[in-house]
Write a structure and sequence with these properties.
alpha/beta, Rossmann fold, 4 domains, 5-stranded parallel beta sheet, 23 helices, globular
């Protein structure tokens, strides 16, 4: 991220316009980012080539403005910028149809999907609409710094924007079954569902990606290093009491076999306690501690940054309110950027980021301001409260980086003995898999081999180059077979090798106890669900077993007639025995 991919696309659009290949540029980007293309990025790099431009704003874009834009006769490149969220509006769809029709029915249109991970879900309506738009345009581009952070399965629908069957599968069902492993799990109501176990054939997937990609690692793009540090923060006594109470509730709910969504709701409240408050079911915030140590640590980090200009990311609105109050009290000027801020105030916040003298803090929600915006004047990025989505995290953490700039400090505030550490570890694991697939791992695969220029991948960033390269046969001149044929042949060879290995494995000695065996054996010895989970993790470190899985094993054994106690009964029996021993000890004393 932050390696100059927008400039590459803007200058390429200008080159195609000068050659007479393109007369219209259609940009689809997250809300706020789409305006940056027209107001900042395009004038910055190709000001002399710009014709009439239109930025879609739901409240201020009038029919007469649309007509003036569509029928403009100036000779420059016409640019239409839309935010992702409005693709489903009929008025916008009509505007896009007219825009494409005017520019040769799409033959002279370049379409750019900025932050294409917004289209990572194949079944979403916005994704289906985006694929329909892409098919009508002669030149197609996707840009993102996080194409596969949460899951490699997210690659399929993004590459479909470039070309159908780009990754070797015509349907997502085929792609998913080939690259992911699932097993059936049973809910409390008896219904079953497929649970993701892991991924497979990732080397083959990387080969398909390599047909469309060259790689520029972040280290070679003159992007400054990110200096990561963690600031450990204690909990105040009221916070610790509230956290421990909620923690017991979470463990109890999980032990009872609750649905994952119910457990996540309890986990969300745990995270709110770390900020000193809890939301009720109606969305009202109730204070646990008005001045938690986390706020004091934040103020120290902000004032200790040189120059004192920082980005502070907060997950909750109450976090933003408290952070703003604490920083202003300390004499730090602030600007906010989140879902409750209108378009004019958002633009003002970005202007303040560049013009307001230090000390200054840009306070934002990463879901709203964490992607596509240039916040490079900041010297540090501070995560006051964390998010579980690796894409949101990675995008927001890179906002202060810029090519040729100074190193940026990334600070994570971590409450000791809480879920903060677990969330950061989970995010790190997701990033490692993504790096292997479309980052440094792909760079190693492509080093010195292919430079066809279809997509530029910089630290996982995909930038589509020439959509007509395929017809030139440049790839075929490098091989005796087409790349697609080579990969299909490799897949067939791998399948036959697997069959041979399976036959050999059948003759080998049986393996050790499975996760199922370990869990059931531990349950038979009278362990609680928490203890069983610890036993399974110790015996199988890579196991993805959860408390809900353990509860399912216990319930299944009870249904079969085995004399198994519930986890709650075991705990009650132990407490009674401990109380009896304590009472006997008191009598002796």
């Amino acid at each position: 991220m932050r390696t100059g991919k927008t400039r590459v696309i803007v200058e390429q659009a200008a080159r195609l316009w000068r050659c007479g290949e393109v007369t219209g540029l259609l940009v689809v980007a997250p809300n706020g980012v789409h305006a940056q293309w027209v107001e900042r990025e395009i004038p910055r790099w190709i000001a002399e080539d710009i014709g009439t431009s239109l930025v879609w704003r739901s409240k201020s874009t009038k029919p007469q403005c649309i007509d003036t834009f569509l029928w403009s006769r100036d000779s420059g490149l016409h640019v239409l910028a839309l935010n992702v969220e409005v693709l489903q509006i009929e008025r916008v769809q009509d505007l896009v149809r007219r825009f494409i029709k005017i520019h040769g029915g799409g033959d002279r249109v370049m379409i750019v999907f900025d932050e294409s991970h917004a289209f990572r879900r194949p079944g979403a309506r916005r994704t289906r609409l985006a694929r329909g738009l892409a098919k009508k345009c002669a030149y197609r581009r996707i840009l993102t710094g996080t194409p596969a952070l949460n899951s490699p399965l997210h690659l399929w629908s993004q590459f479909e924007l470039l070309k159908p069957c780009a990754l070797g599968h015509r349907t997502f069902a085929s792609f998913k079954s080939h690259h992911a492993e699932f097993r059936q799990q049973t809910r409390r109501d008896g219904r079953s569902y497929p649970q993701l176990v892991g991924y497979r054939n990732l080397e083959e997937l990387r080969d398909w990606v390599s047909l469309w990609a060259t790689v520029v690692p972040r280290s070679q793009a003159d992007v400054p290093d990110v200096l990561h540090t963690e600031r450990v923060v204690p909990l105040s006594p009221p916070q610790r009491r509230a956290y421990d109470d909620l923690k017991r509730d979470v463990l109890r709910v999980a032990a009872d076999g609750a649905e994952e969504i119910e457990i996540q709701a309890h986990m969300l409240k745990l995270q709110q306690v770390l900020g000193g408050f809890v939301y009720d079911d109606e969305g009202n915030a109730h204070s646990v501690d008005d001045n938690p140590p986390r706020l004091d640590a934040l103020v120290e980090e902000v004032l200790g940054t040189e120059p004192c200009r920082v980005i502070v990311w907060c997950r909750f609105s109450e976090d933003i309110r408290r952070v703003r109050r604490a920083l202003r009290k300390a004499g730090v000027a602030t600007a906010e950027y989140h879902g409750g801020v209108n378009a004019a105030d958002r633009t003002a916040a970005l202007r303040m980021m560049e013009e307001t003298p230090a000390p200054f803090a840009f306070i934002g929600q990463p879901q709203a301001a964490g992607q596509g915006l240039d916040l490079s004047p900041a010297a540090a990025v501070i995560w006051y409260s964390h998010v579980h989505d690796a894409i949101v995290r990675e995008q927001a953490s890179a906002r202060a980086s810029v090519k040729g700039g100074d190193p940026v400090v990334l600070v994570d505030l971590v409450a000791e003995g809480t879920l903060d550490a677990g969330m950061l570890e989970m995010l790190h694991d997701k990033r490692s898999l993504s790096e292997e697939l479309v980052g440094e791992g792909l760079a190693a695969l492509l080093a010195g081999v292919m430079n066809a220029g279809r997509i530029r991948v910089a630290d996982g960033e995909l930038t589509r180059y020439d959509s007509h390269i395929e017809s030139t046969g440049r790839h075929k001149s490098l091989r005796t077979h087409s790349p697609e044929e080579s990969i299909m042949a490799k897949r067939a060879a791998k399948t036959s090798t697997k069959k041979a290995e399976t036959k050999k494995a059948a003759k080998k000695e049986p393996k050790g106890p499975t996760i199922n065996d370990t869990a059931r054996a531990a349950i038979k010895t009278g362990q609680t669900n928490v203890e069983v989970l610890a036993t399974v993790k110790a015996a199988h470190p890579k196991a993805k077993t959860t408390m809900a899985s353990v509860a399912w094993y216990r319930n299944d054994m009870r249904k079969s007639g085995a004399p198994i106690k519930t986890s709650r009964e075991i705990s009650a029996t132990r407490r009674a025995a401990e109380a009896k021993v304590a009472k006997a000890a008191e009598k002796k004393s």
